[in-house]
């Protein structure tokens, strides 16, 4: 990744790059005061910013949801989010998501001495193809979906917010079950590459 350094800010150098590997880590986990530091790092150096790692273990969004909606925030430290966002999900990670899914710790040639937390979108290519993909991915028992990679139809916003609120596969936070009400694209996917429909040619808010 090539960074474009800009002016100096109190939080560090401003960079004209937004890291968007694992969906919603930058938007929903990393607070505004740490975004410049996070965006300036390659994933291999994430562990050198302990404040960023700490925000995965103790994220702000559940506290905001509790303050606004009264939904209890899960207890910290969030070892489940550490697996989802920083280490990948595997029994060897030692977290609460005790399933072998997509962590490099599952590799036979892994040297654990050099394995460090890193914000990455991880994909286990040996996961069987799902005949009927579920938009809620792993949370609804579809292990080919997010956070095991990311398919076009994966509802990463609903999944990530459920995960931040402590949901686990098959166990949702009922108060947030309706999600954001956007369960798919306004224009259906196409059967051929690039699969997404052509962009709108005008404002989506036009009357009629």
Record keyword descriptors for this entry.
208 residues, mainly alpha, two-stranded antiparallel ribbon, 6 helices, 2 strands, disordered N terminus
Task: Describe the structure in brief.
It contains six helices and two strands. By secondary structure, it is mostly helical.
Walk me through what this model shows.
This protein is mostly helical and 208 residues long. It has one domain (16-176). Helices cover 22% and strands 4% of the residues. The protein contains six helices and two strands; from the N terminus they run ββαααααα. The chain has a two-stranded antiparallel sheet. β1 and β2 form a beta hairpin. It starts with a strand and ends in a 44-residue tail after the last helix.
Radius of gyration: 18 Å
How many domains make up the coordinates? 1
Shape: globular
Give me the secondary-structure category.
mainly alpha
Mean pLDDT: 87
Draw up the topology in text.
Elements: E1 5-9, E2 12-15, H1 25-29, H2 35-39, H3 50-57, H4 61-69, H5 79-87, H6 156-164
């Amino acid at each position: 990744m090539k960074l474009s350094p800009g002016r100096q800010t109190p939080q560090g150098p401003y960079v004209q790059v937004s890291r968007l590997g694992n969906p919603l880590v930058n938007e929903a986990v990393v607070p505004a005061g740490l975004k410049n530091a996070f965006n300036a790092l390659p994933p291999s150096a994430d562990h050198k910013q302990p404040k960023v790692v700490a925000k995965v273990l103790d994220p702000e969004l559940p506290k905001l949801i509790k303050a606004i909606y009264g939904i209890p925030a899960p207890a910290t430290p969030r070892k489940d989010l550490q697996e989802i966002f920083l280490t990948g999900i595997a029994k060897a990670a030692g977290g609460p998501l005790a399933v072998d899914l997509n962590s490099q710790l599952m590799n036979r040639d892994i040297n654990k001495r050099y394995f460090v937390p890193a914000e990455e979108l991880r994909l286990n290519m040996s996961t069987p193809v799902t005949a009927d993909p579920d938009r809620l991915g792993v949370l609804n028992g579809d292990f080919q979906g997010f956070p095991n990679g990311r398919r076009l139809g994966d509802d990463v916003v609903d999944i990530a917010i459920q995960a931040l609120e402590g949901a686990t596969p098959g166990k949702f936070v009922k108060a947030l079950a309706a999600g954001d009400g956007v369960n798919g694209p306004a224009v259906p996917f196409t059967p051929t590459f690039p699969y997404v429909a052509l962009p709108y040619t005008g404002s989506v808010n036009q009357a009629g």
